[in-house]
Amino acid sequence: MKKKLLFGSLVVIALLVVAYRISCKAPSAELGEQERVAAIFERGGCLDCHSAEPNLPFYASMPIMGDMVVADSKAGYQMFDIEPMIKALGSGETLSAVDVARVEKAALDGDMPMAKYYLVHWGSQMTSAKSTIIAAWAEKWRAEYYNDGIGGEPVRPIAERLEYDEAKAELGRILYHDTRLSIDNTVSCASCHDLSTAGVDNKQYSEGVGGQLGGVNAPTVYNAVYNFVQFWDGRAATLALQAAGPPLNPVEMGCESFDQIIAKLSKDRALTRAFKAVYPDGWSEANITDAIAQFEHTLITPNSRFDRYLKGDAEAITAEELEGYNLFKKYNCATCHVGPILGGQSYELMGQYADYFAARGTELTVEDNGRFKETSIERDRHRFKVPGLRNVALTAPYFHDGTEPELKEAVCKMGTYQVGVELEDEVEDKIVAFLKAI
């Protein structure tokens, strides 16, 4: 009898194992590459947590277990909304480089979905076969998307030059440094974004007209052309729209309208002649901001030693810098800080794993709301455009609130609040060495 029970139990276990392996099988190779990846995400239950309207299981209404499910779903959505990516895979729309980096890293690490999920939802586990499919797809996608001859790295070399209209850019350069764009002729774009100091003023908050202080740290103007939106809260979709903001900001430049600015500029006969030669319809807000935007296309940081490394020069960086880059990737930094400027491609929550603002110990400001200021969507509260990291060693202080003066401590805090790890001192030093190489 005992032998029969044992035999029966072994048969059941064997059948369960077979069923589990079948359910975890990678999508068929007969599917298209993107279809296979989409199928992995869908079967993996990614939308059960990483979407605005999650597909909660029946036990989500049960005591204790239900609370855990709801909490995990809420946290998953806060960290990453995968729904736009899955839709883009199905429609053929352009994917986000950040989304690609994020799912690739999760697949390679095998940390998604969590064990407590896939033990209940058979077929969702990230197997080595699925991970291989996603990694190969991500590498191929980057090669096609960037078209820069570099392999599968999430960080890319920066262009040596971007296309722009030279005549317009020259006018933009003049206007960028012209204090007449401010109400009292004391502040120019360069006042807060000094080109001789890496495109910033190295102050927590910049000083506008009448000595007024702004509410956020001024980001560098260098490489701003690479940002998918402008400002920490993304309220400007283009460089031209960004250029239109400070002149009319009562704290920054204080003008009431561009008509007020044009009235002053039009008195400059030489500049007006030069302007009309390039813009036949003369002075206007659209033309002024377009010229400044064209100038900003010239503000690309030079290729660094790390760019030479990416292009194949293995000796361009030191062993410590290379180790720092590998740690930068290991600790998920390169899932948000991607592409040519290592950032500028997404909004991310400040405080993924710990409450940054509670630890800061000062009152919340309007600017601390981040993207929420523009959307009034609760998920966007404390969510900011990820800054690019080119020349980051020269652009202190750090974060949207300019509260951190030291790069090493900024790296430490990013580990705590964005990655959920306490980085060792040696790790921080190596990551800083890498950042100085870019």
Task: Give keywords.
Cytochrome Bc1 Complex, Chain D, domain 2, two-stranded antiparallel ribbon, 1% strand, 438 residues, globular, mainly alpha, single chain
For the biggest sheet, the summary is: 2 strands, antiparallel
Number of structurally distinct domains: 3
Order of adjacent strands in the largest pleated sheet: 1-2
Mean pLDDT: 91
Topology pattern, helix = H, strand = E: HHHHHHHHHHHHHHHHEHHEHH
CATH superfamily of the largest domain: Cytochrome c-like domain
Low-confidence stretches at least 5 residues in length (pLDDT < 50)? 9-23
- Helical amount among residues, as a percent range? 40-55%
Explain what this protein looks like in three dimensions:
By secondary structure, the protein is mainly α. It has three domains: 20-146, no CATH class; 166-296, Orthogonal Bundle (Cytochrome Bc1 Complex, Chain D, domain 2), CATH 1.10.760.10; 305-436, Cytochrome Bc1 Complex, Chain D, domain 2, CATH 1.10.760.10. The chain has 20 helices and two strands. The chain has a two-stranded antiparallel sheet with strand order 1-2.
